[in-house]
Structures are given as C-alpha cells and as structure tokens.
Amino acid sequence: MAKRKLTQAEMPVADHAFYGLVWAGTVLTERVDRALSKAHDLPVSWFEVMLWLASSPDPVPASVLGNSTMLSRSQVSRVVDALQSRGLVTRTPSARDARSVEVSLTPEGHQLFEAADATRRACLAPVFTDLLDQQDLEALSTVWQKLKANKEG
C-alpha cells in the first residue's frame, strides 16, 4: 500500500493551524540558530537575551529577562553568565533593589548584536518576510498578541 500524507482538508482547521504554528516555530528557530552559530558563534538563546537587552534603553533587571524571554530563569542566568564571560554584557547592582542585578549590553555586545541581527534578518527573508506581505505580518502579530495575552489560561 502506498504511503501518503494527510491533506489539510482531512485535518480540523484548529489542528492544522496549531501544527503550522509548531512547525514554523521549530523550523525557523533551527534555521536562525544554525545561521547565528555559524556566523557569530552565537546560539539563538543568547541572541534572544541580547534582543531584549538591545531593545531597552536602560539596563534590564535579570528577573525581567526571565519573564520576557522564552527561557526559564535558570537558563537566562546561564546565558547571561556566558555572555558576560565573552564580554558582551555587564551586570550591575540595581539602584532600586539591592537584592537584584541589572544587565546591559557592552559596546562589544551592541556591535555583535547588530551583526547577528543582520544575519537573522537575511536568514529569515527568503523563508518568512519575503513571502509575507504587511497584512500577513500584522495578522500574525495580532494572533501572537491574543495568544500571549491569555498565556496563563
């Protein structure tokens, strides 16, 4: 008997949408991770932390990084340790809370982030951003906002 794939028509739309979300996240993340590791010796988890740091005008409390990224707090701590050992971030005591530290990119960290972000964008363009128009991107953004707004549900 010949093997065949199920078609979208044979799968409930909610199941197909969820599978597509998982597929896209897995495939695109693996693609970006390979490109960043090859070009910059920078795993995607490190890039994610750097992205949040680069997006903030002020140093970011370590606890906020744990709440913002898709990493656990212990993973964030290990990533920040690794980034600090490479001279890409600094930790400073918080002026607002003596028990907490704040993390920021060093000048070298900003420079590496800019290069890595260009690599990420170039890597994703042919398989993501070049395939989608502004309306598609806005629709995806709306979907993510709805899902994230109810993440505890």
From TrEMBL:
Domain called HTH marR-type: residue spans: 1-149
Identify the SMART domains for this entry.
HTH_MARR
Which Gene Ontology BP terms does the record give? response to stress
- What SUPFAM superfamilies is this protein classified in? Winged helix' DNA-binding domain
Pfam families per record = MarR_2
A molecular function GO annotation: DNA-binding transcription factor activity
Q: Specify the protein name.
A: HTH marR-type domain-containing protein
Please report the organism this UniProt entry assigns to the protein: Streptomyces glebosus
Taxonomy of the source species: Bacteria, Bacillati, Actinomycetota, Actinomycetes, Kitasatosporales
